[in-house]
Amino acid sequence: MTEFLVVLVASFLAGATNAVAGGGTLITFPVLVWLGTDPISANITNTVSLWTGSLFSALGFRDHVKKGKEHLKALLIPSILGGFAGAYLLVKTSSNTFRILIPFLILFATILLMLNEKLITWTKVHLKGRSYPLVFIAQFLTALYGGYFGAGIGIIMLASLGMVGIADIHIANGIKNILGMTINGIASVYFLFSGHVLWSYAFLMMLGFALGGYAGARLSLRFDRKKVKLFVVLWGFLLSLFFFLNSYHA
Questions:
Q1: Which residue spans traverse the membrane (predicted)?
Q2: Is residue 13 within 8 Å of 212, Cβ to Cβ?
Q3: pLDDT tens across 25-44, in order?
Q4: Environment class of residue 49 by beta-carbon count within 10 Å: exposed (0-12), middle (13-18) or buried (19+)?
Q5: Summary count for the chain: helices (H), strands (E)
Q6: What is the mean pLDDT of residues 182-210?
Q7: What are the respective helix, strand and coil percentages of the chain, to the nearest 5?
Q8: Measured on CA atoms in the order 77, 67, 145, 164, is the torsion positive or negative?
Q9: Which residues contact 201 (CB under 8 A, 6 or more apart)?
Q10: What is the DSSP code string of 5-56?
Q11: How confident is the model at residue 21 (pLDDT cuts 50, 70, 90)?
Q12: pTM recorded for the entire structure
């Protein structure tokens, strides 16, 4: 019962963290690994569970999504293709190979979180108005990464949306949530047949993500977003170092 309680609390905190600053996967994924779960099963179970948080976030921005529906339609196809491709590659990856990749994936996600404002601003300034083929490719690669690991895809998508000239952050967030839900959803459908989903954890995490996401959204104004983000970034660097040393000694 203790491990189920740990999983529920971790997913609640991850859902709240995603709502306030992002990076919630950096909480739930290592918890599942530390509980003795195979890393690929932990990653897949986490992805399958994430859809509740994405759904509730998307519903919260539904009015803003309508204003950017033309951009949304154009980016759905690369999201679907990339999400499926990433999920396929993950299932075909051996556990030993994935263990080696874990610290680099966590480090990449942490750096994305640390530089998110600068990345988004730079993209808007230097790449605004770029052609859709470039944005299509960027979204496909983002979805590919999202289907494979997923932490930090929202940051990359906000940067991509800046490339097509979306200046309103609420519209961008609405589209980002729909696309994120699409990527997780497509990957999750593929994962359902992989045999890697740990359903005893997944159902608890779905509840935790949903409750945490709702609570985080309601209480976000009471938290200093920069402090939460700083904590998650420091946590991400420590995780990357831990998994690197663990894989090295293994």
A1: 43-62, 74-91, 97-115, 136-159, 198-216, 228-248
A2: yes
A3: 888 999 999 999 999 999 99
A4: buried
A5: 13, 0
A6: 91
A7: 85, 0, 15
A8: positive
A9: 4, 7, 32, 37, 45, 49
A10: HHHHHHHHHHHHHHHHTS-THHHHHHHHHHTT--HHHHHHHHHHHTHHHHHH
A11: low
A12: 0.81
Give the residue carrying structure tokens 């963290």: 17
Q: How many residues does the chain have?
A: 250
Name the residue among 87, 25, 90 with its Cα closest to residue 53. Answer: 25
CA distance 164 to 22: 23
- Run of H or E including 234: helix 225-249
For residue 2 the two structure tokens come to 């203790």
Q: What is the pLDDT of residues 78-112, one digit of tens each?
A: 999 999 999 999 999 998 899 889 889 888 888 87
- Ordered by start, the domain boundaries in the chain are 2-249
What is d(CA 131, CA 10) in angstroms, rounded to the nearest whole number?
41
Separation between Cα atoms, residue 153 and residue 176, nearest integer Å: 9
Q: Which residue has the tokens 């593929």?
A: 190
Q: How is residue 104 written in tokens?
A: 């680099």
Coil, strand, or helix at residue 75? Answer: helix
